[in-house]
Amino acid sequence: MKILVIEDNPDILANMVDYLDEQGYLTDPAQDGISGLHFAVTRPYDLIILDLMLPGIDGLTLCKRLRNDAHIQTPIIMVTARDTLTDKLLGFESGADDYLVKPFSLVELEARIKAILKRGKNNNNSLLSVADLSFNPQTFEVQRNQQPIKLNPIALKLLEALMRASPHVLKREQLEDEIWGDNPCDSDALKTHIHHLRQAIDKPFKYPLLHTIRKIGYRLAENS
């Protein structure tokens, strides 16, 4: 699970990142709102921890921009010293999923992370769709323009990862880790599987959905 931690206090940031890394999470730290916004819209995350008092862009504004402008639905836990009911209501109205008042226990933070991720996992079986392409994670049925598409197991894994990240780019390393984990294959293996996936979901149709981002990775989206 990958978590973006946006916090301007270097000591608090280091404590959260160190603790979460020890618990097995992958973390990206950001110390200001502009960097946090950039990470959140260019990389896929399972959860975002967001402080309110940030330089550059404050947490409330950042949260609203993620929800309303970037249409990012990644779960967000706000962490802040603001503890009034009004502050909490403003946090939830801006799009936060949870609100944790400083000072807090790192154990409690992890418990809240697990609770949110568990809820998200329960929703992972819902139908995925990008433009006219759909994938049912429960039945493994794939359709585009209402036409059924048959894919092998690796292609199904690639498609699911790309659809969940859409419209963001997934780096090659992320896709290789998604498919092969700690046992990476030959460097050309991913290209081969991407080629087969593209042949199945794009070639028979009017416009492509699977795009190669040169020297970076791949993205699944209606527009290149």
Description:
It is a single chain. The protein has 224 residues and is α/β, with parallel strands linked by helices. 44% of the residues lie in helices and 21% in strands. The two termini are 27 Å apart. It has 8 helices and 12 strands.
**Count of extended strands:** 12
Category by helix and strand content: alpha/beta
Number of domains: 2
The CATH superfamily of the largest domain turns out to be Response regulator
Termini separation? 27 Å
Characterize the overall form.
elongated
CATH architecture of the largest domain: 3-Layer(aba) Sandwich
Number of helices: 8
Instruction: From the alpha carbons, calculate the radius of gyration and give it in angstroms.
Output: 19 Å
CATH class of the largest domain: Alpha Beta
Looking at the chains present, what oligomeric state does this protein adopt?
Answer: single chain
Main sheet overview: 5 strands, parallel
Helical content stands at 40-55%
- Report low-confidence residues grouped into runs of 5 or more: none
Mean pLDDT, all residues: 89
Read across the widest sheet, the strand sequence of neighbours is 2-1-3-4-5
SSE topology string: EHEHEHEHEHEEEEHEHHEE
CATH topology label of the largest domain: Rossmann fold
The percentage of residues in β strands lies in 15-25%
